[in-house]
């Protein structure tokens, strides 16, 4: 109960939705990494454990507030009980191939893994989808079957190839 009381006292003036990400001792490292990848991002308040608890020892980092491009997040060092999986992912909509390449390379660096169809897992285990901003339009177009065939063969998306398949 102390953890939840601390969480809500730490961030009383947040926007209506804040995504809380559960980590096992590396919340501050992960928040710093994500802030370094995304523009218009910043670290916020860091809360420390007031006592020993399942998420960490007294004075270790409990919560890290951070913002990625205007979206607020909270990284919680909650302990080893829960791990990320593909049931939840973050979608990054990219206008250009350079943006896709940038986010792809940054997020798989130092132990991340490419998956398929624009998906990857970063080194902390969080799933991301790095997609062209016009993907929905391409999939809904007259040649959607050709676009889907091209898309299913890709690991990292190639905008030019997807647009060519839509013609």
Biggest sheet overview: 4 strands, mixed
Q: Report the total helices.
A: 6
Helical amount: 25-40%
CATH superfamily heading of the largest domain: 2,3-Dihydroxybiphenyl 1,2-Dioxygenase, domain 1
Q: Which outline best applies?
A: elongated
- H/E series, N to C? HEHEEEEHEEEHHH
Give, in spatial order, the strands making up the sheet with the most strands: 1-4-3-2
What characteristics describe this protein?
167 residues, alpha/beta, Signal recognition particle alu RNA binding heterodimer, srp9/1, 2,3-Dihydroxybiphenyl 1,2-Dioxygenase, domain 1, four-stranded mixed sheet, 6 helices, 32% helix, elongated, disordered N terminus
What does this structure look like?
This protein is 32% helix and 26% strand. It has 167 residues and is an alpha/beta fold. Strands 1-4-3-2 form a four-stranded mixed beta sheet. It starts with a helix and ends with a helix.
Q: What's the helix and strand layout?
A:
Blueprint: H1 2-10, E1 19-23, H2 27-37, E2 42-48, E3 61-68, E4 71-77, E5 89-94, H3 97-108, E6 113-114, E7 119-121, E8 127-132, H4 135-140, H5 144-152, H6 159-165
Parallel strand pairs: 1-4, 5-8
Antiparallel strand pairs: 2-3, 3-4, 6-7, 7-8
How would you summarize this macromolecular structure in one to three sentences?
This protein is of the alpha/beta class. 32% of the residues lie in helices and 26% in strands.
